[in-house]
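Bug report (template v2)

What were you trying to do?
Predict the complex of my protein with adenosine-5'-triphosphate.

What happened?
Run completed; filing so the output is reviewed.

Input:
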Amino acid sequence: MFAPKDRQSEADRVSTIVEEIKRQLTEMTVKLANAELETHLIEQNYGDTAKINTVEIDDQMETNAAVQQQKQLVALSVENQTILKHKVNRLQRLQDSPYFGRIDIEDDSQDSLYIGTASLMTDDETEFLIYDWRSPIAGIYYNGTLGKIAYETPDGRQETELKLKRQFTIKQDRITNMFDTSETIGDEILQQVLGTDANVYMQNIVATIQREQNEIIRNTNADVLVVQGAAGSGKTSAILQRVAYLLYHSRTQLDSDQIIMFSPNHLFSHYISQVLPSLGEKNMRQVTLNEFFVQRLHGLHVEDRFQRFEQDQASLPESTKVMRRYLESTAVLEAIDLHLQGSRPDLYFNDLMLAGEVVFAVSEIQAIYQETASHLSLSDKLLATKNRLIRRLQQKVRELAASDWAQEQLELMDESDYQDLVIDHHFHSVAAEQAFLLKQVARQRLYPIYEAIYNNQFLDIERQYLQLLGQLQPPKIMASAWQSRLESVKTRFERHQIRLSDVVPFLYLRDQLTGGGQNRQIQYLFVDEMQDYSAAQLFYLHHAFPLAKMTLLGDYAQDLFAGNYQSTNIIETVKQLFPQQRVQIHELNNSYRSTIQITNFASALLPEQPQIIAFNRPGPRPELLVCPRLVDLNRELSRSCTRLLAKYGMIAILTKTQAEAEQIFATLQVDAEVTLMTENKRRLNHGVMIMPIYLAKGLEFDAVVGYNVSEKSFSQPGDHQILYTIASRAMHELILLSLGTPTHIVTELPPSLYSRNGSSVEAQA
Ligand SMILES: Nc1ncnc2c1ncn2[C@@H]1O[C@H](COP(=O)(O)OP(=O)(O)OP(=O)(O)O)[C@@H](O)[C@H]1O
């Protein structure tokens, strides 16, 4: 309990700080408006200058110089505007809720430091009124227990005494909640935060980061940081705050464009899209694995994980499982390295064609390749071939520029195309301008060939891959089975298709041959739901972003895609994958998303009982509703949804497959907005959302209805994980419907964990 004078002095401080924020905000807003006006005036002036486009060469040169100067002015003015905008945004964010924590430390004197989502200084910049949660000293708020403590600063380790740690909830300049705590961030505020309703956007957790999450957020020395965490343990939250932390600490060397996150699906990308902006940071790049492969395999239709999962539900023969295990392991990548290091493979080339005509024939490319120095490595020989082709192409450009065709094109050129070509150029004579334009015309015509050479399309990589497969002798696979798979890869190539399990070996072979495929700009790579990646895929990501530090997070218990054909210990896999790197492993066992009843039920669904500690937030027991006929099931589904909608804003019906989701969408009758989620939908909605579980990865809803958990649908080895993932999406309530006999995975659970058809299972027993 707080003495009234304590409460009053905290309330007074909030008022004073909010007043100061408002004052600074008014000042900055005026400055920003002035800066915007200035940019507008310069731009207007720039437009006028650019319009003075004359035929006289001297005038034209003068115009160009003026244009350059104006451009620089615009750039400077825009930069100033950006800085001011940033400040205004920061103050706006602080205005509503200036801070959430206070620590009192004592060195020579006693200091009270207040922690918020951004820092605030006095006008003369001599004193911090609020410390950014990412500053070194703020680390104490998350880590320190009362008493002597140490914290890291840029100048080394500092020691101090922590006398007080206080938490606040401040809404619109009023303290609505205030607690003192002696250890890590106490339960009271967390209880409050976790009890709220689901949102279409994930929220930041900076006010209540837990100690073990803080270690992940502030880790700067691991090359590969692996986070294994139970469903709802805050893995995604921790890494998003980690991105904000990294951006803050490497402000001058790291830009959000140098961070890439592999996310499980588009809904998820949208769901997390507001966390970084709410902390004043720009979002990192986001990509799904499928998008990444599609970008790299231009022209081939790539089988995606979702399609494959759907097909696996219908049939997954043993021979397919064995092939996948091999093609998705690093053994296949090692075999490629050996294949390229040993006696050199024959190389196959493609004609380079333009509008139906051969520009470079296979024979010519072959001859160039043969002429390259024999001591060079394969990739260097190909690079030399590529350079030679580009030189020959330049000669072809010159020839084309001198042709009648180019002359004709020039005469037909309209004014705007002409302007596009000459802008930013000045010529000493009309003849020089003419020569320049002819060359541009020829260059544009042959540009597709340049691109094809640049992208190594002269190499017939598909044939190369088939040749590789033909030479591999994978263990535990019969030669005849391997041969027929090779045939099916060939048929797919003819239809411009590639199976998911072939993608990584195919890309890796191409990269190793051409020496390409590596992006050295990216400094940090994040993979969410790492358990859905094969060892070969993770290895390939490291190969594709060789300078990036990796953060891999996931939960082996939520392995949806591979659970039916292999069980791997993802942590061991990662350790073996990156023996040269500093790999650090963190486990998160406290689960925050769901009520204690849902978390305990979900954990019990797993065959190997994991160590999951439920957050103590009570709610109703999960309910199993068994319906004898389909009409009963559908009626029960509508009834359950209606009941849940009376209490909650966002509920989801989760199915195993897309087909089931579509069927429910066609029949569900409720008085609310109902949305069928598909792979291409990008945002969550209020009301009822229907989707297959793989689209709900990483998401959460107030209540979940798991559709048809019958023994018929859930009896395979990987089904434990699917059910666990479904159950753990629910925050407050979980209902499972079954048509006929329910899955043994549920009925074998201790009866105390759920109720069945409205009464407790214990009572029924
Ligand atoms: N320290 C925290 N303070 C407040 N809320 C938290 C905290 N940690 C996690 N949460 C909340 O718990 C829920 C689950 O978090 P998150 O989605 O990050 O977990 P996850 O481990 O990625 O889950 P999953 O693997 O099941 O997708 C979210 O609502 C998140 O806001």
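What did the reviewer find?
The mean pLDDT is 89. The domain at 214-302+518-588 is CATH 3.40.50.300 (Rossmann fold).
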